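A reminder from the course coordinator: this example appears on the midterm review sheet, so study it carefully.

Given structure:
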């Protein structure tokens, strides 16, 4: 190992590959006089923990009679008070690069960094994309009964795909494996007649269900690949989800069996028409053992399928990164959305949507995925689990011309271009035992078979010159009889304890030295803390949010629970409308527990069974009616209404959304229409501001109006009839017509009721007075003819 400033000049861009960032310079820190000194500092380790700019003077006769806190200050101040540089213990930030290792894609590959608490250092890692790579493509196919037609299409892919990939790859190798699901109930039918032939009801010979079967190791013989595909038969299972993630895990970690080449780009192609089981699904079959992330193939068959749970998405993601895998998902469009959410959690993954798994479509999908994945360069940085809480890491990509930076990656990178990643690593604190430690940080370019190893050496203790005497209160200077003093033993006992170091260590010089055990690490001032006897959460002791004390997790302030897995805050349960669990449940362990068992969703917002009734929203509608249906008063109903409420003149379903039409009858017998929708995980309510009222008073008024109108029409008809009859009996001049009067059949029905009629005749003589004649007309039956 040599300093990169002297020996790494052979690399063309050495000035970019590694640089040290000194946190605080002497001039800048001088502005803060009290940055290092404090009366609470009593040892060299305490001093250096205050920051990388601080130094401790271990000169024995430095400031005779002064307290130990005076030994901690800025180097320039210590020097002015008589402490020479050779007597100063101070933070050391050093970066070294091993220039003896060479690589073609990732450089440098080995870096060493020395840090103290509060300091940081930056290095630059270069990643170069080559012109052409050898490619290993492993086809992992769902062979359940619904994939019969798709399996037939796959039989013609091998030769055509090999020819097409010669445009982009120097050498293509193919492999094949199949999967269905865990061969246990309830995933398969365990009737004896169904185990060996799940398709016996259809008079078809099927192969038994299996979690994963490795069929063909990587080979450049395309004819052999085609022969193997043609010999495949379908299988069958009971439930819809399949064991895809289980099979992917075995294909990724069983390196030797599958035959992945170290120098090749590795593509794992998953073909299925159904979603996949996730971790904890196996509890339905009584399988509770978590997946261990290891290979379990015997005679090319996955033997752990019936013993271990499905892997978690996080486990699968780690193994794909660790084994330099790119994953490609070829799924039918019905499952596209499910796998779209999955791909977001798997770095270096590509999702393709196929209407049918026909050969041309599949070939284009593989070629497009390969070019897309190759053009995106990203890195993953991981710190050892034991120290992940004591360090922080930031990544900034420097992309070449023509490409685009996004998060920790560059997209659109062309072959031959170089991508640089500036990686800054800082140290928060030392371990609890305040001892020096070595930590490994891995920088993995996604999908590349090369990586950079950064070895961090943390300086938590003080060497204090060749004599290793720091002249602070942490040193025990007594002789053997001093070590046996009672007060030294008391320093090794916790309050209320009558044994030294909790019975798990020895008291040396008034300080506990904890014993070592194969179970894990014992530490703490009184050896009261260990990392192996408390519950685990997410693969971490106490969920990484607490410490293990006497077999119980002592959680950080914001967490609670047996394994510190429950947040104290209820922010995760607060829905968009500001209510906890949409006002329909309670927040337990950071998750909503719905009051109504029919409800589901992160905020109890989904209820497919509730959408058949409108009654659950009547109370909300009534509240808004009582406040006049005005936006100004709508806030009074926040405690009553969980959904978002709006007012409309006329409610009707909106385009692109599903609305349920409802009716509410108010206390004054008016009907109010409203509609509800639970799209996008949030309930909405629209209330019509136009009521439909039909009360008793309105009905009475309508009835009286109809009666009055009917009576009026009758009177008009009678008056008109009498007027017509009167006109028919008189001439225009007022005299009766001469000659006989002949009654028609129609006239018979209009004979008046009176039996007397007076007719006045006017004659020229005598002119002085008219002559009147009275004619008596007796009543007669209507059937007789009228005789005038």
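Designed residues:
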């Amino acid at each position: 190992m040599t300093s990169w400033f002297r020996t790494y000049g052979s690399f063309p861009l050495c000035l970019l590959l590694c640089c040290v960032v000194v946190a605080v310079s002497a001039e800048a820190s001088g502005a803060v006089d009290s940055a290092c000194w404090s009366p609470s500092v009593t040892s060299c380790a305490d001093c250096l923990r205050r920051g990388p700019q601080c130094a401790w003077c271990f000169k024995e006769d430095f400031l005779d009679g002064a307290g130990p806190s005076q030994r901690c200050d800025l180097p320039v101040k210590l020097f002015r008070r008589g402490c020479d540089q050779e007597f100063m213990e101070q933070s050391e930030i050093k970066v070294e690069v091993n220039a003896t290792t060479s690589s073609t894609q990732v450089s440098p590959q080995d870096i060493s960094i020395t840090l103290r608490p509060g300091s940081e250092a930056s290095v630059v890692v270069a990643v170069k994309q080559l012109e052409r790579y050898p490619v290993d493509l492993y086809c992992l196919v769902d062979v359940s009964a619904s994939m019969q037609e798709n399996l037939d299409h796959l039989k013609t892919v091998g030769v055509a795909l090999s020819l097409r990939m010669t445009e982009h790859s120097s050498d293509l190798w193919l492999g094949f494996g199949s999967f269905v699901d865990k061969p246990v109930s309830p995933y398969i039918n365990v009737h004896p007649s169904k185990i060996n032939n799940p398709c016996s009801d259809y008079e078809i010979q099927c192969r038994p269900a299996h979690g994963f079967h490795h069929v063909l190791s990587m080979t450049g013989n395309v004819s052999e690949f085609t022969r193997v595909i043609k010999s495949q038969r379908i299988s069958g299972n009971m439930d819809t989800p399949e064991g895809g993630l289980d099979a992917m895990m075995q294909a990724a970690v069983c390196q030797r069996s599958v035959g992945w080449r170290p120098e090749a780009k590795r593509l794992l192609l998953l073909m299925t028409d159904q979603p996949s089981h996730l971790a904890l699904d196996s509890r339905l079959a009584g399988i509770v053992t978590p997946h261990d992330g290891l290979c379990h193939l015997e005679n090319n068959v996955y033997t752990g399928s019936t013993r271990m749970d499905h892997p978690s998405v996080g486990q699968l993601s780690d193994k794909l990164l660790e084994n330099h895998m790119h994953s490609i998902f070829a799924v039918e469009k019905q499952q596209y959305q499910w796998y779209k959410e999955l791909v977001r959690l798997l770095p270096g993954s590509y999702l393709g949507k196929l209407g049918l798994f026909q050969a041309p479509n599949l070939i284009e999908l593989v070629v497009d995925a390969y070019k897309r994945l190759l053009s995106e360069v990203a890195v993953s940085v991981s710190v050892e689990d034991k120290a992940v809480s004591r360090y922080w890491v930031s990544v900034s990509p420097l992309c070449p011309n023509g490409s685009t930076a996004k998060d920790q990656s560059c997209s659109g990178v062309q072959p031959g271009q170089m991508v640089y990643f500036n990686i800054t690593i800082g140290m928060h604190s030392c371990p609890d035992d305040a001892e020096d430690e070595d930590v490994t940080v891995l920088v993995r370019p996604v999908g590349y078979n090369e990586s950079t190893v950064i070895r961090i050496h943390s300086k938590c203790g003080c060497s204090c010159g060749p004599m290793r005497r720091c002249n602070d209160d942490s040193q025990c200077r007594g002789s053997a009889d001093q070590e046996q003093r009672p007060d030294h033993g008391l320093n090794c006992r916790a309050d209320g304890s009558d044994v030294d170091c909790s019975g798990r260590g020895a008291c040396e010089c008034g300080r506990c030295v904890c014993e070592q055990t194969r179970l894990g690490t014992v530490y703490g001032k009184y050896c009261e803390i260990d990392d192996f006897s408390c519950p685990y959460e997410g693969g971490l002791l106490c969920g990484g949010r607490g410490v293990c004390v006497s077999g119980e997790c002592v959680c950080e302030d914001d967490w609670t629970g047996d394994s510190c897995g429950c947040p104290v805050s209820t922010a995760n349960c607060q829905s968009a409308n500001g209510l906890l669990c949409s006002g329909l449940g309670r927040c337990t362990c950071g998750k909503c527990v719905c009051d109504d068992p029919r409800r589901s969703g992160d905020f109890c917002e989904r209820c497919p069974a509730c959408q058949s009734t409108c009654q659950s929203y009547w109370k909300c509608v009534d509240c808004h009616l009582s406040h006049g249906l005005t936006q100004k008063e709508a806030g009074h109903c926040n405690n009553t209404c969980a959904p978002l409420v709006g007012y409309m003149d006329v409610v009707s379903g909106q385009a692109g959304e599903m609305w349920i039409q409802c009716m509410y009858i108010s206390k004054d017998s008016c009907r109010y229409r409203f509609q509800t929708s639970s799209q996008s995980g949030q309930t909405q309510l629209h209330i019509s501001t136009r009521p439909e009222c039909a009360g008793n008073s309105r009905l009475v008024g309508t009835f009286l109006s109809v009666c009055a109108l009917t009576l009026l029409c009758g009177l008009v008809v009678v008056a008109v009839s009498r007027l017509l009859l009167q006109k028919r009996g008189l001439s225009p001049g007022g005299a009766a017509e001469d000659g006989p009067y002949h009654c028609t059949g129609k006239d018979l029905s209009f004979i008046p009721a009176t039996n007397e009629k007076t007719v006045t005749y006017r004659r020229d003589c005598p002119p002085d007075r008219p002559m009147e004649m009275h004619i008596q007309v007796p009543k007669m039956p209507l059937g007789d003819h009228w005789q005038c």
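The two ends are 151 Å apart (CA to CA). The mean pLDDT is 79.
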